[in-house]
């Protein structure tokens, strides 16, 4: 994208990754902090519920994930609408301010309800901060590098999730489940807030893209939240396909978040080994999105989405098939789930961006991220109900079947939008 305009203080505004690399890099580092904060919970919190607070119901243990997922999903939806009233940078900073109490509550909560409440705050934090880093990167690069931009954003965040999950597993082995593993989150909150204050807003980049983008058809492409929610959730076949795939993808993550620590400790693995499994999955998920995001710009979004969902389904099959060798089962399953998710994640966000006009793109992404992150709550709810009724293994069978079905639905519903050298409008 070569078009330019004048931004704040007469600074020229251009679209493109190379043209905006300092700000883009700063936002990548911010998202490292975003992912690291939620990574605090991946290894230890399910075990805190069972071992520290004595919860005997799997659904009760997974209630913190339900609280997180519902809150994050609703915040994602609100974030798109809030961008019409507030600058992206303002929302980014607000997200960090809301996240300040989280590591302290996880470290010293006197009752399980405090953990659940901390996850409400964490959901708001993640919904605002992660949404804004995604939107701002897409604003900066323009339409031709959306796959790579979202891949880099998600790679930074989920690699940090994995590294933090691995680190908390080792800290828990050395110092106990609390408070040492959780208190490293104070560093992430402080760094994320400080860096976000240094970020420049991207309103001028959005204005530049709008200036060179055909106006939407008002009767068919209203930019309001209600119209965009309906379009993204159901009316647009491709956006509907992306939304359901995102929901099932994060249903898998919510399910493994709660189930894997309990499943593999029940089969004799220690905290360090569980931390390795829980860390390897998002690390591969994160790092893998750099090449898959670039590949999505080269071969299209749909092949990666469909193949990635089927690879994830295979990961669940591996977990059950090799469960008599739990460390091998956990590692191989984590590899398949991580790589499959890496294929899906940036391609889905890019596909939604492809089909959304800039005037309603933030709301479309917010709607997609609503359905995607409600999957956390759905996964935890399904896992808790099935595990209480039939055992933990039943949750793995259900996840494999749902994921394979979602991949086939995505193949039927999603159509490929040509990736242009200049912006184009949405197609149906």
Structure description:
The longest helix has 30 residues, at 112-141. A hairpin with a 5-residue loop joins strand 1 (4-6) and strand 2. The chain has one domain: Growth Hormone, Chain: A. It has helices spanning 21-39, 41-52, 58-61, 63-82, 88-99, 102-108, 112-141, 146-175, 180-183, 185-198, 203-211, 225-235, 237-266, 271-299, 302-321, 326-354, 361-390, 392-413, and strands at residues 4-6, 12-14. It has 18 helices and 2 strands. It is globular. Strands 1-2 form a two-stranded antiparallel sheet. Helices cover 78% and strands 1% of the residues. The chain is an all-alpha fold and 428 residues long.
Unreliable runs: 421-428
Give the name of the CATH superfamily: MFS general substrate transporter like domains
CATH fold name: Growth Hormone, Chain: A
Task: Give the overall average pLDDT.
Answer: 90
How many β-strand runs?
2
The largest sheet, given as strand count, sense and whether it forms a barrel, is: 2 strands, antiparallel
Coarse shape: globular
End-to-end CA span? 25 Å
CATH architectural category: Up-down Bundle
Using the CA coordinates, give the radius of gyration. Answer: 20 Å
Contiguous helical run count? 18
The level 1 CATH classification is Mainly Alpha
SS content category: mainly alpha
Number of domains: 1
**Helix content estimate:** over 70%
In terms of DSSP E residues, the strand content is under 5%
Order of SSEs:
EEHHHHHHHHHHHHHHHHHH
Strand order of the largest sheet: 1-2
């Amino acid at each position: 994208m070569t078009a330019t305009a004048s931004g704040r203080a007469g600074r020229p505004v251009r679209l493109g990754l190379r043209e905006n690399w300092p700000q883009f890099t700063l936002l990548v580092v911010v998202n490292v902090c975003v992912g690291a904060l939620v990574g605090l919970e991946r290894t230890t919190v399910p075990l805190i519920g069972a071992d520290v607070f004595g919860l005997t119901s799997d659904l009760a243990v997974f209630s913190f994930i339900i609280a997180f997922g519902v809150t994050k999903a609703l915040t994602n939806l609100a974030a798109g609408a809030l961008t019409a009233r507030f600058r992206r940078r303002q929302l980014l900073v607000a997200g960090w301010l809301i996240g300040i109490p989280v590591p302290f509550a996880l470290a010293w909560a006197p009752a399980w309800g405090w953990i659940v409440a901390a996850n409400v705050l964490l959901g708001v934090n993640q919904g605002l901060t992660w949404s804004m880093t995604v939107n701002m990167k897409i604003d900066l690069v323009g339409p031709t590098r959306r796959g790579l931009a979202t891949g880099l954003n998600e790679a930074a965040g989920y690699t940090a999730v994995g590294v933090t999950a691995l680190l908390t597993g080792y800290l828990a082995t050395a110092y106990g489940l609390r408070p040492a593993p959780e208190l490293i989150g104070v560093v992430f909150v402080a760094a994320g807030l400080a860096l976000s204050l240094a970020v420049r807003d991207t309103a001028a980049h959005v204005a530049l893209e709008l200036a060179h983008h055909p106006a939407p058809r008002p009767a068919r492409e209203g930019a309001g939240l209600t119209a965009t929610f309906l379009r993204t959730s159901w009316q647009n076949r491709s956006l509907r396909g992306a939304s359901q795939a995102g929901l099932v993808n994060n249903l898998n993550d919510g399910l493994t978040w709660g189930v894997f620590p309990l499943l593999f400790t029940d089969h004799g693995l220690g905290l360090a080994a569980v931390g390795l499994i829980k860390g390897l999955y998002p690390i591969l998920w994160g790092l893998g999105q750099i090449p898959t995001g670039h590949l999505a710009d080269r071969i299209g979004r749909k092949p990666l989405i469909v193949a990635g969902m089927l690879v994830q389904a295979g990961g669940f099959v591996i977990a059950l098939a090799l469960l008599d060798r739990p460390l091998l089962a956990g590692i191989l399953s984590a590899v398949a789930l991580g790589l499959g998710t890496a294929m899906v994640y940036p391609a889905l966000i890019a596909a939604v961006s492809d089909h959304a006009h800039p005037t309603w793109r933030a709301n479309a992404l917010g709607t997609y991220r609503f359905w995607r992150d409600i999957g956390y709550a759905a996964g935890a709810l399904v896992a808790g109900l099935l595990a209480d009724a039939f055992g933990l293994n039943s949750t793995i069978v259900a996840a494999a079947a749902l994921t394979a079905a979602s991949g086939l639905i995505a193949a039927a519903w999603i159509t490929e939008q040509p990736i242009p050298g200049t912006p184009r409008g949405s197609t149906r």
